[in-house]
């Protein structure tokens, strides 16, 4: 046997041994991180399979109470470090070493490709730099026109369907948020309701499918997943969503080429198409990925925030009254559209929004990949490649940072109170270099719709906040309908 043949035989064996030795080292190191009891080798895998969106959310809250800011879950050879204390979260979010999203987000790849949410490394940096101008002040001013127009329609819709809204406001809010995001992202201002609802339903079905995909460990391996019913269903849903987006892009391109067709409003899609026209290295596939990402991140999160805002304001009439008084002072009781100057003056309303997002963060967890081995502030060594799962929901309910954490108290966000705590104790839009690029967009949208509703209606509670049953499939929601009584002023 000559030397070359020997090397060819030995190389795979050596690579395998190196891989195994690294895995063994990681297992030994991570044993020091506290963990719930689980089956040897299998770990928490079977427990995950036995949960649905509701029970998994409840189990996660129970584990957060049992441990102190950090714990480990194992799934065969894969370890997930769950973190919910501000100091450890600051280490992760403020660092470029841990800037990449974890493999958890890989389930979105077939749909969102390498959009801003899922991309890594240099691709993410280029996308972030490219998309930042889309949220410039002047562009947001254009978006504010859309927020005002859609709020008028939304308020009118509530007025016509007051009894139905009292039974469940969710469908109305989802439609409003989807309309807003489709107009600002895609430029769609004239499209029938059934098309919107079908598009939204496909996204909802896809997210439910992704939970099942994530829940079953064997779906991590393409050889098994591609043989499953989930794979064929995902393929069809993704194809339909992509076809919708490409059709919108195609129509927008035609509109831009026909100079006699005046563009009424600038959408995010128009900015991306202009970049392409100006010679920026971006193809139609990348444009579609960014628009799809913006629609996904921008409609469900906003919808959830509005639902919880109406619920808590209805349950706290004293807070609602104070917010209404501020709105009346800013608008001088005039029924006109919001301006940027108006929104900047609504400080107490912003406190209400922030406190709602503290209690009910639209994105209850954020997951990153450990880019380099490091030691947490709590003294645990975390090997490179480990999944870092940050629980925003539990972070925001840390009694050491937020006394009486279950209480709804907007005054927590007065400047003098904010100054007493870590900026990483409150991260509804993430934080650090990979924070949410659209947080100003979201705040303007939320303030605008609340102004429209609170100037027209008094909110009265039907259900208590504490009676809500939560579920999480990337976005926080409730199993219960959101029932609020709208009393016309």
Can you tell me the CATH topology? Answer: Cytochrome p450
Secondary structure tally, helices? 20
CATH architecture label: Orthogonal Bundle
User: Can you count the beta strands?
Assistant: 10
The dominant shape is globular
Q: So what's the oligomer here?
A: single chain
What is the CATH top level name? Mainly Alpha
User: How confident overall, as mean pLDDT?
Assistant: 91
Backbone structural class: alpha+beta
| Spatial strand order of the main sheet | 1-2-6-3
β content, as a range? Answer: 5-15%
SSE run? HHHEEHHHHHHHHHHHHHHEEEEHHHEEEE
Query: How many independent structural domains?
Result: 1
Corresponding CATH superfamily: Cytochrome P450
Radius of gyration from the CA trace? 24 Å
Brief overview:
With 489 residues, this protein is of the alpha+beta class. It has one domain: Cytochrome p450 (Orthogonal Bundle), CATH 1.10.630.
Structure description:
By secondary structure, the chain is α+β, with helices and mostly antiparallel strands. It has a single domain (31-488), classed as Cytochrome p450, CATH 1.10.630.10. 56% of the residues lie in helices and 9% in strands. The chain contains 20 helices and ten strands. The chain has helices spanning 3-30, 45-49, 53-66, 86-93, 109-112, 121-131, 137-160, 162-167, 170-186, 193-215, 222-225, 229-257, 268-277, 284-315, 317-331, 340-345, 347-359, 392-395, 415-418, 439-456, and strands spanning 70-75, 78-83, 365-369, 374-375, 381-382, 387-391, 457-461, 470-473, 475-478, 484-488. A four-stranded mixed sheet has the order 1-2-6-3. Strand 4 and strand 5 form a beta hairpin. Helix 10 (193-215) runs antiparallel to helix 12 (229-257) and helix 14 crosses helix 20 (439-456). The N and C termini lie far apart (92 Å). The model has no long low-confidence stretch (mean pLDDT 91).
């Amino acid at each position: 046997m000559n030397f070359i043949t020997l090397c060819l035989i030995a190389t795979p064996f050596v690579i395998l041994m190196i891989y195994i030795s690294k895995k063994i080292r990681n297992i030994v190191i991570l044993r020091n991180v506290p963990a719930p009891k689980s089956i040897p080798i299998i770990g928490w895998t079977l427990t995950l399979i036995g949960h649905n969106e509701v029970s998994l959310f409840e189990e996660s809250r129970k584990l957060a109470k049992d441990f102190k800011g950090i714990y480990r879950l194992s799934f065969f050879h894969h370890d997930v470090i769950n973190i919910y204390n501000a100091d450890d979260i600051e280490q992760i979010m403020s660092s470029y070493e841990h800037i990449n999203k974890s493999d958890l987000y890989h389930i979105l790849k077939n749909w969102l490709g390498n959009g801003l949410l899922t991309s890594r490394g240099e691709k993410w940096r280029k996308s972030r730099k490219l998309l930042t101008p889309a949220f410039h002040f002047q562009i947001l001013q254009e978006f504010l026109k859309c927020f005002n127009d859609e709020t008028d329609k939304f308020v009118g819709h509530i007025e016509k369907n007051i009894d139905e809204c009292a039974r469940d406001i969710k469908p109305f809010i989802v439609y409003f948020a989807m309309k807003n995001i489709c107009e600002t992202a895609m430029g769609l201002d004239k499209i029938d309701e059934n098309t919107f609802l079908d598009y939204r339903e496909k996204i909802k079905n896809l997210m439910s499918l992704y939970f099942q995909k994530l829940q079953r460990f064997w779906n991590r391996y393409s050889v098994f997943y591609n043989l499953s019913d989930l794979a064929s269903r995902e393929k069809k849903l993704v194809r339909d969503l992509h076809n919708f987006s490409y059709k919108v892009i195609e129509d927008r391109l035609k509109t831009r080429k026909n100079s006699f067709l005046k563009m009424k409003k600038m959408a995010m899609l128009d900015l991306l198409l202009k970049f392409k026209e100006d010679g920026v290295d971006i193809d139609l596939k990348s444009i579609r990925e960014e628009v799809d990402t913006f629609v996904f991140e921008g409609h469900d999160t906003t919808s959830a925030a509005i639902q919880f805002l109406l619920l808590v304001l209805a349950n706290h009439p004293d807070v609602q009254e104070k917010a209404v008084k501020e709105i009346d002072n800013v608008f001088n009781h005039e029924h006109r559209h919001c301006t940027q100057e108006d929104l900047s003056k609504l400080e107490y309303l912003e406190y209400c929004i922030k406190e709602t997002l503290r209690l009910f963060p639209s994105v209850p967890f954020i997951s990153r990949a450990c880019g380099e081995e490091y030691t947490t502030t709590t003294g645990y060594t975390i090997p490179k490649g480990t999944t870092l799962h940050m629980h925003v929901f539990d972070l925001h309910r840390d009694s050491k940072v937020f006394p009486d954490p279950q209480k709804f108290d907007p005054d927590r966000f007065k400047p003098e109170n904010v100054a007493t705590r870590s900026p990483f104790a409150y991260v509804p839009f993430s934080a650090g270099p990979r924070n949410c690029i659209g947080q100003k967009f979201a705040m303007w949208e939320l303030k605008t719709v609340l102004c429209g509703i609170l100037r027209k209606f008094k909110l009265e509670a039907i259900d208590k906040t504490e009676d809500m049953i939560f579920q999480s499939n990337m976005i926080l929601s409730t199993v219960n309908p959101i029932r609020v009584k709208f009393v016309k002023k």
